[in-house]
Amino acid sequence: DPDADHHGQTLLSGEELRFQLEGLAGPHQPLPDRRFHELFEERVAAHPDAVAAVHAGREWSYRELNARANRLGRALLARGLQREDVVAVVTERNLDWMASVLAVFKAGGVYLPIEPHFPADRIAKTLTRSECRLVLTETGSTTTLDKAMDSVPETRLLLVDDAYEEFQAAEDHADGNLGVAVGADQLAYIYFTSGSTGEPKGAMCEQAGMLNHLQAKIHDLGVGEGAVVAQIAPQCFDISLWQLVSALLVGGRTLLVEQEVILDVERFVDTITAGRANVVQVVPSYLEAVLSYLEQHPRDLPDLTCVSATGEALKMELVQRFFAARPGTTLVNAYGLTETSDDTNHEVMRRAPEGDRVPLGPAVQNVAVYVVDENLVPVPLGAPGLICFSGVCVGRGYVNDPERTRAVYLSDPHRSGTRMYKGGDYGRWLPEGKLEFLGRRDSQVKISGFRIEIGEIDNALLKVPGVDDAAVVVAERPDRGKYLVAFYAGAAAIEVEVLREWLGRSLPHYMVPVSFHRRNKLPLTANGKIDAKALTALATELEVVDEAGDPPRTPAEQRVAAAYAGVLGVAEDQIGRLDHFFDRGGSSLSAVKLAIALKKTVSLKDI
Questions:
Q1: Which of 115, 164, 257, 497 shows the greatest Cβ crowding within 10 Å of its Cβ?
Q2: Dist. CA 467–CA 171, nearest whole Å
């Protein structure tokens, strides 16, 4: 057909196209015609006195957790909560957080997680963009929230303790299930992620997608009846949700681990051991810190059956170290996006795979994954292309952001009546039908599991008085992982603490660069754009050639300098006695490694 449009053609035969669309899709598994919280209520009826959750020495049974969630749900309904109204939950990661999340789902609302330590400006933007009308919070978590509420006067605040008391003796059936009808296509939650325009974007996911993901996790990670799942992810990280509630669907228990425990690897290992955790999910950079500790202090960890790594590329060297330390434990490489109800691919490993890369694995149940060209046509098997997703996992779009939604939430051209999400990752299919990650197509990166748009940091940095031009790049070294480095042009140098303080007003801590460098002018490419490649190379070079000012004098200082050098990946003679660990590129994660290197002579708080 010499007159055919080349855009409509494909290199695939009909047989290969069918194989990619059907053979590489996840297995079809019918979902129960009930919502997640209703399945939890069935478990409450089956074993009300079993332990549902543990946190900092406190335990709640299924009965108590359900009763508290019902009281909170009634308090929300009493304040006029309607179907798909957004409820922000601003609490620490504790038992009340768990009850609050359940309450929102039971009442038919939409769960919006917000960390209480986020900057007031970011909280206000999140509440405004999501049109949130109710905030469920606790005493002690309102420092920045109170400031944010000044700019959203139409939003009402409800304290958890007040809600408990309101319905504790109000009526005999206050603890009974609410019975609010919630549909499979109803909006379940909104997670805000970094946005390239300087504004965070809120991904909306529905009840069916959430339940499908929970069941995939239960099946692939072996979360059986009585299993203990560790909850360790921050509230703003979408993986926090399955960690919080998956065990409740099978009669297991959730072990909530405090952030201060996570930042102390020894305490973390002690906590998951004492809590008899069976399933733990961490980002690879934290897994490396845990393995370093276990290599120095071998432990049995007899209850640990499965570790999942997610949020960053999992490297083969780390997988090999894992199985050397834990030969009988399953390791799962999990991959997915917030927009696709969290993870869409699981590579379940019981030994290190062949080759030099760790695959992302096959698609999970009821999910189709495509590797396509710019016209959304599948490319031949093994060829690189853009990774797209189809099926129940695909969310509804970005809240109150139709332009962004139209760009990436599409009708699936291969499955009539199905939504497709066009992701930003490149990948390819391996011969065994597993997906392999090949990189990003935009300026988005993941550091310590958090999804970051570099453009959002650039925009924040340009608002600092005295900054004329700015660019943030990602540097990476084998011994340190990825970290953010900022360059700026201006008439005069600006104190690092001033820059950090300014960025901290609008950005969460994980988006603030670890180091800042002033230049008279930033390098440009031939077409006049900032040369990010040149700055990335310069970022590593600057740290390598840094000269120490005043060298260490005492044996104690020399020991600290040696630990700095090992963790930061620089020569020991480049560490001065007045060097600040974080100014030299340290991060909260590398501080954990520093405490291990110093054999707990100092605590993380000391650092």
A1: 257
A2: 60
∠ at Cα 594 (593, 600), nearest 5°?
100
Q: Which 3 state secondary structure label does DSSP give 292?
A: helix
Tokens of 558: 């020399």
Query: Do 37 and 73 meet the contact criterion of CB atoms below 8 Å apart?
Result: no
- Is the Cβ–Cβ distance between 212 and 366 less than 8 Å? yes
Query: Would you list the DSSP string of 461-490?
Result: HHTSTT--EEEEEEEEETTTEEEEEEEEE-
CB neighbour list of residue 283: distance below 8 Å, 6 or more residues apart: 309, 310, 311, 312, 448, 449
Element (H, E) at 42: helix 36-46
Tell me the pLDDT tens digit for each residue of 189-233: 999 987 655 678 999 999 999 999 999 999 999 999 999 999 999
Distance CA 468, CA 450 (A): 28
**Strands 253-256, 228-231: parallel, antiparallel or unpaired by DSSP?**
parallel
Paired tokens of 39: 């399945």
Residue with tokens 């031939």, as numbered in its chain: 526
Asked if 21 and 433 touch (Cβ cutoff 8 Å), the reply is: no
Instruction: Give this prediction's pTM.
Output: 0.82
Rounded to an integer, what distance in angstroms lies between the CA atom of residue 357 and that of residue 372?
Answer: 21
**Secondary structure (H, E, C), 238-274:** CHHHHHHHHHHHCCCEEEECCHHHHCCHHHHHHHHHH
Residue 258: is it exposed, middle or buried by C-beta count within 10 angstroms (0-12/13-18/19+)?
middle
pLDDT tops 90 at residue 361: yes
Phi-psi region of 597 (alpha: psi -120 to 50; beta: other; left: phi over 0): alpha
